[in-house]
Design brief:
392 residues, D-amino Acid Aminotransferase, Chain A, domain 1, 3 domains, 17 strands, 4-stranded parallel β-sheet, 9-stranded antiparallel β-sheet, 13 helices, 31% helix, alpha+beta, Rossmann fold, ligase, single chain
């Protein structure tokens, strides 16, 4: 049996469980708390430590044949010493390195010739950078992003004018946070028609396989729902597939990556962000595809042939069940109501605490058609059950 060490014990690691059992793989996780979701489905000799604790990862390596990642909040420099000692990381650390800092990621994509929004880094003298370089060349509104550790809308702000930008940066400059004034990225605001995403996997031999392109719908920079497949032209789908292959081959990556895109009203595709791991936009694949993104990831990192990514139904819609209050409820009544929706599959992550915006679970509904309108109606019906006073 192959043992896969997973750095991170959240829901993404937890969702690898069924695939691991199917493939005869055992999971061992490095995670801070015994209460984290993946602890219940992994081996008994997990490593309880911070995600970026390289000494703990050295212990994980002793218990694993290969190590992979649930999230990207790791210390690449410290892990490199383990790689030099022969620890097998998949994706390899060199594939992660250009992607962890959003500014470096933008530069890497641009240098590959891939389409991205215009962008600039915030330097220490950010007043000069913002006013002279950015505002004069790109203008407002603009998007301000933390270069590290931003996810699910955290560290991302829509800025309307130069004064708002100054105020936001001044707030962060006085906080005792890892994020400092020179740790931000400013980029062009894209008035997109839709947001899209694709899950792509690369095998050790270089084979790349993509899942169907999905449409993601965000609220406050957090994904609320995903519709599969996205209603886009074949030209757009081909372009996205080409971008995914170019990126993964350039990185010499092994494993699953999630890639987000903007689709502009004139049909242009721009890369928004890249996640070097399984991704929220691919959760629909658990119930709607021959092979889930989690099985595909384990197949790739374990050196097994990639699976078939074809959908088993005409369409599907995935809705995130996000926290909207501070509580310790398991929301069992609401979950039972949602389960009554035909062809609904509820996935509850077993988290013990709810807080606004926290991902507590998701539900995927399989559809008999590829109707985007039908998918949206079903998504809203789920949200009317889940969120108090949700308007349909």
């Amino acid at each position: 049996m192959k043992r896969v060490g997973v750095i991170g014990g959240g829901q993404l690691a937890w969702m690898m469980a069924d695939a691991a059992k199917k493939l005869g793989v055992e999971l061992v996780v490095q995670t801070p708390s015994p209460n984290d979701p993946a602890v219940s489905i992994s081996a008994k000799d997990n490593v309880f430590a911070a995600i970026d604790d390289a000494n703990a990862t050295a212990e994980l390596a002793k218990k694993s044949d290969v190590i992979t990642f649930e999230n990207e909040f790791v210390d690449i420099e410290a892990l490199s010493k383990l790689a030099e000692q022969g620890v097998c990381f998949r994706p390899r650390l060199e594939a992660l390195a250009p992607l962890l800092d959003k500014y470096h990621q933008r530069c890497y994509l641009r240098d590959l010739g891939l389409p991205v929004p215009r962008f600039v880094a915030i330097e220490q003298d950010w007043n000069t950078t913002a006013e002279v370089i950015f505002a004069s060349e790109i203008g407002f509104p603009t998007v301000l992003k933390a270069r590290r550790h931003g996810y699910d809308g955290q560290g991302t702000f829509i800025i309307k004018d130069i004064e708002s930008l100054k105020q936001k940066l001044e707030v962060y400059s006085t906080k005792e946070l890892e994020t400092q004034p020179n740790s931000f990225l400013l980029e062009e605001f894209i008035p997109f028609e839709r947001e899209l995403a694709v899950i792509a996997a690369r095998y050790v031999s270089g084979e790349v396989c993509t899942f169907p392109v999905v449409e993601t719908q965000q609220e406050e920079q957090v994904c609320r729902r995903a519709i599969a497949p996205a209603c886009v032209s074949s030209q757009v789908a081909v372009e996205i597939d080409k971008i995914a292959r170019t990126l993964l081959n350039s990185l010499d990556a092994v494993g699953v990556f999630g890639i987000e895109f903007f689709l502009t009203p004139d049909g242009k595709v721009l890369v928004n962000e890249v996640a070097p791991r399984t991704h929220n936009s691919g959760h629909f694949s658990i119930d709607a595809c021959e092979t889930s993104q989690f099985e595909q990831h384990l197949r790739a990192v374990c050196g097994m042939q990639l699976g078939n990514t074809t959908m088993i139904c005409p369409g599907a819609v995935m809705v995130n069940l996000l926290g909207y209050e501070i509580s310790e409820s398991d929301y069992i009544t609401k979950r039972q109501q949602i389960e009554q929706i035909p062809q609904a599959h509820v996935h509850w992550y077993g988290k013990t605490e709810s807080r606004p915006g926290r991902k507590l679970g998701h539900v995927t509904v399989l559809l008999d058609t590829q109707s985007r309108d039908q998918a949206i109606v079903i998504a809203r019906s789920i949200e009317s059950i889940w969120y108090p006073h949700q308007a349909c």
